[in-house]
Design brief:
Elements: H1 9-12, E1 18-24, E2 30-36, H2 37-43, E3 48-51, E4 79-84, E5 90-92, E6 98-106, H3 118-131, E7 135-148, H4 162-169, H5 194-206, E8 211-216, E9 222-227, E10 230-231, H6 232-252, E11 255-258, E12 274-280, E13 283-284, H7 305-317, H8 322-325, H9 331-334, E14 347-349, E15 356-359, E16 370-373, H10 382-399, H11 428-436, H12 441-446, H13 448-467, H14 471-477
Helix pairs in contact: 3-6, 3-10, 5-6, 7-10, 11-13
Length: 481
């Protein structure tokens, strides 16, 4: 695809009548509109006004209980500035190839990146490493459940909100999974829904959020996708757009993908693992050319000093940034002992029970040396999660931090608590208190403005949960108390 610039964008869009644009909110949702081509071309350099309320309400468009800095009654929910990123140009294959651009949000007074804009936050985090000559590289993996709405057939008239409608009238456990039973890496199960399965893969290829691996995971109706490795800012865009593809294609087939961290009790949750490394002069900067003869731990014999400091930064700051990895009430239902999810500040060479899995030779090639951060769930905002990883890791490099805990023993139970590393937050409320603490490392790497804003959005989520009356409560107490 040709590079899109201010000079050639009109030519590239010459046969189009409209353009779709979208930005990313703090929950990772795409918020956008269809715009006439003439209008788009008139704002392509200076940007256009976008209602700031997308940073003043939650994922269901309810205004936050607490008045936050960007959008509030005092400023009249004023406009912010949305500027198209021409490098993000794509065409949406399932919408007649309409042109698509991502936008970033800017303060209308200063024209600086809006402090809560996820794309802007990641750009700032990555730029610090780039100024030192390093390029951040990343990969993302998503597990997610898929459900069908009973009696709903994939027709053009299908109501995309039918799953929500169904759940208003039926218990959640009545929603049938796409496939039954536990069958990870099955090569026959996808044939049951072949048009959907290949439709997602091909749409991702056309929409520039390419899938590297695509298979069933262990769980009813669970699939896993590994996205193709690439530059960190592009990877975050692709991860967010991958969810968009799956939901859009799912709509056409009567399927509801669920990226909740834990849709089903008693079954493994949905992870959103993130891989990270730094490159310099075309070489992997995490790889040590000659194995260290006397490393602090054998697990890092092949990891460079820079890689060790980066790992130390991530581990040191991990407890303070948990709301960015686990942003919902449901996130913490996944992060429980012995369910294939890490719950401590922990790391280890090729250790899948640890919060950070170190991947180096001999099991990986030098160019594939990297860290896999295994705490994030599929429900996290990939821009914010990657920003946290890069910002913490680079702070470790700047401060030359030492790895704070020894590697997790290979004998540890899967996901079990470690005597060596602190237990991570068990709830969003606990995580948010730690995140917003005056001494939080989140404030050090992101600044007070972002921490106060995002912390306020999580306090809103906690309050809604604390006021909710759940099915579990009613079933347990309606007759017995």
């Amino acid at each position: 695809m040709s590079e899109v610039t201010v000079d050639n964008v009109a030519e590239i869009l010459q046969n189009d009548s409209a353009v779709k644009v979208a930005g990313v909110d703090v929950d990772g949702q795409l918020r956008g509109k269809l715009m006439a081509k003439k209008k788009f071309l008139s704002i392509v350099t200076e940007g256009f006004g976008f209602c700031s309320v997308i940073f003043g309400w939650d994922m269901h468009d309810q205004t936050y209980f607490k008045e936050l800095g960007i959008s509030n009654k005092e400023n009249g929910y004023r406009d912010i500035v949305a500027v198209p990123d021409l490098n993000s140009f794509r065409r949406i294959p399932w919408e007649n190839n309409v042109p698509f651009f991502l936008v970033s949000f800017f303060d209308p007074d200063t024209r600086e990146a809006l402090f809560a804009c996820p794309r802007g936050l990641l750009n700032t985090a990555v730029s610090k490493a780039e100024e030192a000559g390093y390029q951040a590289m990343a990969g993302a993996e998503y597990e997610f459940y898929q459900f069908r709405t009973p009696g709903n057939h994939p027709t053009p008239e299908r109501n995309a909100s039918s799953t929500a409608t169904f759940l208003k009238e039926n218990p959640v456990e009545a929603l049938p999974p796409l496939t039954e039973g536990m069958f990870g890496y099955s090569i026959t199960r996808p044939i049951h829904n072949q048009d959907y399965y290949y439709g997602v893969f091909n749409a991702c290829e056309s929409f520039r959020c390419e899938i590297e691996g695509w298979h069933t995971e262990s769980g009813p109706g669970v699939y896993e996708a590994a996205l193709q490795f690439g530059e960190a800012k592009e990877m975050a865009d692709k991860a967010g757009l991958f969810k968009y593809v799956v939901k859009a294609i799912g709509t056409k087939h009567g399927i509801t993908p669920a990226f909740m961290a834990k849709p089903r009790q008693g079954l493994p949750g949905n992870s959103g693992h993130i891989h990270i490394s730094l490159m310099k002069d075309g070489k992997n900067a995490f790889f040590r050319d000659t194995p260290d003869p006397s490393p602090p731990y054998p697990d890092v014999a092949h990891l460079s000093d820079l890689g060790r400091h980066f790992l130390a930064g991530v581990l040191t700051g991990l407890p303070d940034i948990m709301p960015l990895f686990a942003p919902t009430i449901n996130s913490y239902k996944r992060l429980v002992e012995n369910f294939w999810a890490p719950v401590t500040v922990s790391w280890g060479l090729e250790h899948r029970a640890a919060s950070v899995r170190v991947i180096t030779p001999p099991t990986a090639s030098p160019k594939a040396t990297r860290l896999e951060v295994r705490v994030p769930g599929a429900d996290c905002n990939p821009h914010l999660a990657l920003a946290a990883i890069v910002a913490l890791g680079w702070k470790g490099v700047e401060k030359k931090l030492e790895i704070p805990v020894p590697p997790l023993s290979k004998g540890e139970d899967m996901g079990g608590a470690s005597d060596q590393g602190a237990r991570l937050a068990k709830s969003l409320k606990e995580a948010t208190v730690r995140f917003t603490d005056k001494d939080s490392m989140a404030r050090e790497v992101f600044g007070d403005a972002f921490v106060e804003h995002f912390g306020g959005t999580r306090e809103h989520e906690v309050r809604l949960w604390e006021e909710a009356v759940t099915d579990w409560e009613v079933r347990r107490y309606i007759e017995t108390v």
